[in-house]
User: Fold these one by one.
Assistant:
Number 1:
Amino acid sequence: MFIDYYYYLAFFLFFLGFAGCFFKKNLISVFICIELMLAATNLLFVIYGHEYKILDGDIFVLFSIVLAAAEAAIGFCLIIRLFRKYGVIEKSTLDEVEL
Amino acid sequence: MVDILLIIFAVIFSCGILFSKDPIVSAFFLLLTFLDLAGIFYQLGSPFIAAIQILVYAGAIAVLFLFVLMLLNLKKRVPHRGQWLKKISFSLLVVATFIPFILTTPRLKMAIDLMDPPGLEKTYKLPMERLFSVLFSEHFLAFEYATLLLLFVIITVILMMKNQGEEK
């Protein structure tokens, strides 16, 4: 019965994270919004696993958590390097980065 | 009842992520959202994923966010004086997060009794046993790739931080 509301909640969380990626200026806040989107997809996986009575949903959530951990490690590595070089971590800092 | 509470709290906390100016407050709201999602996973019948959500997401990733934010120390934080109403309402909100968990506790006890009824021989698999029997048979290749991914991430991060030292 509540499965529909969970479904709407997953979409709501995803689009909230998506909007946050555009409206937030701080890079760490953008990163937090990306994590929110990942959490919303995890919720969708669990909902579908529950709906179709299969375990694959749970297993994909495990892989998704591994991906999120890897992404957090690399992302924070980049953010700390940016902070040490430019002193600020705003989205506009990325324009000045020389590759 | 529990479902409604969980959904309402998830909406409140995720809006808090988007509408708070301070990244540290955002990170705290993210932590609360993860705890809330763990409750939802439990309600949907995946207790193992709920435990992993709390241990890995809330315990490691969200704390890593807070740790990096405090390490970078973006701006001098002025201690908020006054604003007692704001502080108390926020504290009550945090305490209220645990109401759904408390409400599910009697059902948790029931579930444990169902999983392992006393004086009965175990003829079926526990949820975790089922999960891992599928993970290590059908999805074994993906599991190996996940381990490789973590190894490469460790190497990448170490190399990136090492090169930075040589530039200076």
Number 2:
Amino acid sequence: MTSTAPKPDSPLMKGPVNAAHASQDEARALELRYQALVSSQWEKAVRMAWRLLEGDRAAAEDVVQESFLRAWKALPTFRSDAEISTWFFRILVRQVGNHQRWKGVRKFWHGLLKEQTPTASLPQTGDQGLQRRLTEAMQKLSPGQREAFVLVHLEGFSLQEAAELLDRSPGTLKSHLHRALTTLRAELNELVEEGTFHDNP
Amino acid sequence: MTTLKTDHIPGSQQGFMPEDPELESLSVADRRMVETLQSHYQPAQMESWEARRFLEGLEARRQAHAPAAAWRAWNRFGWLSVPLACAALLVLALGWPSAQPQPASVASSVSPIPKSAVEPASDVITLGEPDPNFNAAASQAIADAAPVTVDAEMILAMSSDLDGVVGSDDDDDELSTSETGSPGLEDSTLALVFSEELVAPDSDNAWLPDDYQALDALLPEALNGTSEQRSL
């Protein structure tokens, strides 16, 4: 993904004019950080959005693109002393929440019209049965449990970082994590008994 | 258990195990379950060009929105058109154009005044009451004039110069040029009196009262002579 960064003389690198920054060099350095963020964190952002959105690949890509676009527009307001990735993932989590709220509205109207809601798209590679089982188990989690489990256990954020991203207290997050593990154990008990987890380290 | 730090990108390590004491208490089964989810619960392999395509699209979007930005900048002051229009209407209502020169189109549209309205209805011209100060001023000018010696030949020469110039064509005027061939007496006399050559005050030949008497004596003779010369 190192080849995705545009050339330094690209018009994109000139970026929006930021009156808050003292010099253009500082703004240019910030834009370079943004380019590096897009190039290095694109896959991670799509994967995290895919997990938070219960395996909807199209929705995940839309949310990621919208999040990067919002980050680009809000780049002048970014404080250069902060971590740009943390700032971006906060935007991404908010966009996921907005998408889920609208998804709930659409699901409500689809239920009234007795239409089928779009199903999650499973990966076309690997063990299809295992992936389906894992997806079904993750769909059993509540939104709060899923967010906490994905951010902490799957994406590797610390408890404090996840709490800041989700704008929740660490105690609430711990509670969600405990309940999520309990639910997953119950849902994936058969896999545990079959020894599947031992074969897939 | 190995604890991985995330220096720059939080949560960027695959297979990352939380370092929080509460989360370290995961059982071996839970840990294996989490590892399985990490490796299998994820989308298919993504293409590397997606991020590059996004950046290219962002650049194209920025170029496409450049005119829109200019439009927004102009529209930011678009509200000024309302007070400007009101001010323009107010100025027009106060009659600002009347203080300006009349346009050429308006001037050309005005019809000229008829000639009959300008010309007098008859040939009679009323001069009004004579100026009472005129005679006094004239007498004073004559008194101050330098004495000039006038003889008959001079009068005849001046009368011939004035022939056809002074006088009128009135039939009632018995001293008109048309009848006598010489200028009217009063007109020629006035012409002589008020001529700059005769009344020049600085001249050494300023007129004296005796000169006027001599002039009165010479005038009939000069006029008779002129008539005789015309008759010949």
Number 3:
Amino acid sequence: MITRVALCALCVWYIVTTFALVRAWSSEWALAVHVAERAPEKPRALVNLARAALLRGDLEVASAALDCAERAAARPWVPAWDREDARSAVAANRRLLSVL
Amino acid sequence: MVWVAALIVVVLYLQPATWVYEDLTWLQMATAEPVFWAPRGLARWSWWWQQVHGQPYLAFRAVSVAVFVTSGYVLWHLGRRLGLSARVSGVIVALWLLHPLQVETVAYAAQRGELIAGLGVLVACRVASGPIRWWSPVAIVAALVFGWLGKESAVVGLLLVPLICWACQGWRWALGVTTVSAAIIAGGVAWQFGGLAGLVNVEIYADRVTWWQWVQYQAAAVNLLLGWAIWPTMAITPDPDIDRLSVLSPVAGLVSLAILGAVALWAWRAHRLIAVGLLWCLLAFVPRFVVQTPRSYLNAHQFYVPLMGLVLAAGGVIKHD
């Protein structure tokens, strides 16, 4: 009886979490927001948020996300390759932002 | 139980959605008919076919869901062959189908190859679990080739088929299959990848990542993916330090794998299914955590096939309860 109740509870827990994750994977914007919320100090997550905002035409959010990405990339524990990738992506997106 | 879980999966996944992340790259690649007989050839071909027929995004996801649910059905059969009752096997398949770690593989259309690879591996293992007929070796090879046409990750089947043979067949058959698998693995590594450096994708990071950082990434992947498998809520809660690799990460990763291996060996005689499940998880996971790059070390689809092993082990625990 205890095993059955535990397994039912486990299934309900899985369904609720899966539902939340499927919603996150429903669009570029929803995914970018989910990842940025989950890993708010990860440079690539913030660059992707900026890209998604650009695609939506939300230039203010894109600019703010690029600022955050730049700050995140400067953190001492970010590995050199990651910092390099993030900075070049930030620069490319800033160029795009300046044209729009 | 399996059908109820499958129905929930359909309802959960077939919601209004659209392309995300690298899907569009795949769509661009799918404008011309791809080479079929190559790794990911079948996955690319299926994309191309759907695109040519003008199908909407939801049709792409529906195909992924169909492959996923079919895999669940084959896993149910495998559970039965490994000694589980229909009900317990249904429970573990429900856990596998509903697990949040599967979302990335199923909802992300670009990962269809991983689903095909998983299905190929499952079918090969189901056939290897017996009863053995004259056509069984042909069917195993065909299933593994099918998986490989989905994604090269199906090569873990060369480790999992011998494991299932050791669990279900006599030692002569198991030894034969193991020898053939080992020869294919050795030949494949030498021919396809030109040595270990090519296999582990290390060359593009050679000047940018030290060997110690490489070890830390792989260990962090072990810790996090195992953690998410056991406690899935971790996959949705904020973790600002997710990329902050600690000196203790490799130690924790090695200890986790060692515990899995030790429990599996201890359980081999008395609790065979628990042992098989844990060894399945180890064998399917270890090659992945060597080849994944620092950019992709936290991809949840890395754990798609290993999770099958964990639920099989769970089935062994439930059976003894």
Number 4:
Amino acid sequence: MESKKLKNSLPGLVLVYLAVGFLLLNLLANSWLQRFNFDFTENKLYTLSANSKKISAAVNKPIMLKLYFSKKIAKTYPYLLDYAARVEELLFEYQKFSNGKIRVETIELGPFSGAELQLVNDQLLGIPVEGTNEELYFGLAAISEKTKEYIPFVEPNKEAELERTLSAMIYKVATLDASKYAAELKSIAKREDYARPLTKFKELQSYTQTKYQVRTDALTQKLAKLKEDLAAVKTERANTDDQTAQQLAKDEELIKLEMIVTKAEVKAVKEELNREVADLEKNIQLLTIGIVPGFALMLGFMLWWQRKKSCGEPVAL
Amino acid sequence: MKSKLLVLYKREFLSYFNITAPYALLLTFLLLSGISAFYFENFFTRGQADLLEFFTFQPWLYALFVPAITMRSWAEEQEKGSIELLFSLPVSTKEMVIAKFLSAWSFVALALALTFPLWLTVNYLGNPDNFAIAASYAVSLLMAGGFVAVGVLLSSCCNNLLLAFILSFAGCLLLNLVGINLLIDYLPSWISKDLLIILKEFSVTYNFDAINGGLVKFSSIFYFLSLIIFSLAANTVIIDRKKVNG
């Protein structure tokens, strides 16, 4: 009885040790290696350029970089969240190369964070959010003992110049020697490769659009011609006697009818275009999603067949 | 020792192809992958050539898919009693555990590999950052390993297939849930915020979200690796105990 109890309790103890070990090791890894990252992007988007590294390494007094961001309000704008995450990573990159001189702090500005809001309200730009009476803040501040620099709103469409702007801010706040680092600041390149639009898809879309444009153009031309005809018939009718006028009135009716038909045709063509553009999306989606399980089925069938041919029985040990 | 492990692994891996259920699971996984990539947030209105949505949804997809794969590993052996046969064989517990883990992981890896048409499609439609996508796939595989290790571990605690599935599903879901703010908002306020932030670091979603843009945190890789190693170690301990106690 005794020995059985011992046997039972021992593995339980080992399990507890294992769990504690797992937790502790990860806590250590999280606190020590928090900023130890690998940048796998093609153009090293999360890595500072050599010039920015030089500038942040040259900082010789404490600087605080504060990112003010209304994360909760920004939830409806996923691209803004992504962008803020990238900005934050970039700020931490500056911290990494500054020998402890630069510190980064992210401050979430919610609707009720009153004190902070009051403090920065003069410097930051709140963007009113549609449908609510809340304001979205996404500002940046570089603060040293003597000076402060602000970016009222970090505009997402200026991401290409972000690194240059940040370096310039740090450079200014740290009052670095102008003659030494001016050249470095100037040669921080723009980065255009953050956005990767669906170029081919847009091409396909515009191809469809031009195809339909030809048809709509022809129809509008026809419509213009009919209008001219109508005007001509009208003037002619005004200048003739009764009998021909009756004939011309019939012509007028016919032209009007044709105009209505043509207008309906234009509308139909537009609808067709919209449908084809939507179909383009749908076809791409269905094709992709369909190919995936198709491959799986094929693979499964091949394996099944081969196994059936070779043994027919499950593999025994 | 190597060859024993190899034989065990082969037997376990091929056993997935003997029954129909894994095929159905594979199909479901692939369909849901495709749907998550295109429909969850309209891919074409976002207009970016990447697989962001696909990877964001992946932890949740794994939480459903992996337990269904791993539930059989130990629970079925215990249900049928074939575990006694396994114990009588001249293989160590460690080898058994590793073989079970590797075979399930390989199956999930196969499923992940079969999502390649999504990658092809974004390459056709635009000019994506293929290095970042490759990194995401690699870490996704590692994440799958973490889920598989947890699933195999929890399967060893049960002697019933359904129980194994439910327990592993709950475990994997919990690993995901602690990382999202939705849950954190609902926890009582007397739990300190710092504790919640620490708790968040132990979630799969938190560790996987960060790499979506191609930036891989070392601590994330460490987390997944340690999750695998510690789960396997715990698994060995539990199976050893079963071996001794019978």
